[in-house]
Amino acid sequence: MQANITLDSSDSGFSSNRTADVPFTLQDLKAAIPAYCFEPLVWKSLSYFFLDIGIIAGLYAIAHTVNSWFFFPFFWLMQGTMFWALFVVGHDCGHGSFSKLKWLNNLIGHLSHTPILVPYHGWRISHRTHHANTGNLDTDESWYPVSQSKYEQMPWIEKLFRFYVPLLAYPIYLFRRSPGRPGGSHFLPSSPLFRPSEKWDVITSSVCLGVMVGFLGVVTYQFGWVFLVQYYLAPYIVFVMWLDLVTYLHHTEADIPWYRGEDWYFLKGALSTIDRDYGFINPIHHDIGTHVAHHIFLNMPHYHLKAATEAIKPILGDYYRQSNEPIWKSFMRSSKVCQFVPDQGSGVFYQPK
Fold first, then answer.
1. Which of 13, 165, 171, 339 maximizes the CB count within 10 A of its CB?
2. Does residue 32 lie in a domain region?
3. Can you give the residue range of the structural domain that contains 43?
4. 109: which residues sit within 8 A by CB, 6+ positions away?
């Protein structure tokens, strides 16, 4: 039984079902999933990493050989997409679903994230906060709604990046965090994002990022700004747009409820997300569209999420959300109708301005 996507979240029958306490438990869902889905396979995880690295290297070789401005826009789109795919591999490392070996997760996580200017540990820790508080208006970390009163008070520059150019927001988030939360940098161990015990993890990733920035500086000095734009900055912007688009779409939909206070608990919040179909690109970015199962079972490898989703759909029933409409259409619609939520209450929905 699959829920239909609708724009009218005021329909009482629909929304009351979606905001009530769920009639199943985590144990019920886990029991329905084949046991192998929870087991990472090191060889398989590594194969995705080396495949992505190989394709990225191949695209660089082709771009260097062709060296044509007519080809570069296609290269930017393809390489930026592969940067995004590589990020997803590091994402598995951050969840511990790449392998059961912590040192291997950290190694591959840094090798995946540092080249695309993501502070592996800093991001991993804030992303952990997001998963532990999904759907919670007070404590979620990523793409949570603002209240109506907050929306009305937001300065124009904040509204610009939040509602009109959201696909370029990620680098700002790394430095300043999200609106309505205490400020905090992903690069500084003194940030409120981190515990004192995580100091050296944060420093390690920040140093790695500093080395990468230094390398890009040397490349720019040797070959010039045009070279940097052609071979790195343009693909990087495409990667940022992919990252923002996917994370935005999986948590921004008119029928997704948001909770406050004691009305929230983990499973209820984890269900406040939606699966998306990215068409032919699904296998390229490692089926990241299977987001509902991922939020329920954080440590499940990406290559088992499709099987797990099919196993739990009969139990989830109307609590499972999936959209098969074109991604561009979903983005345009959500950016138009999903502006803020009411100041009071729980189990609330996005409203248009």
1. 339
2. yes
3. 12-337
4. 90, 93, 94, 98, 120, 124
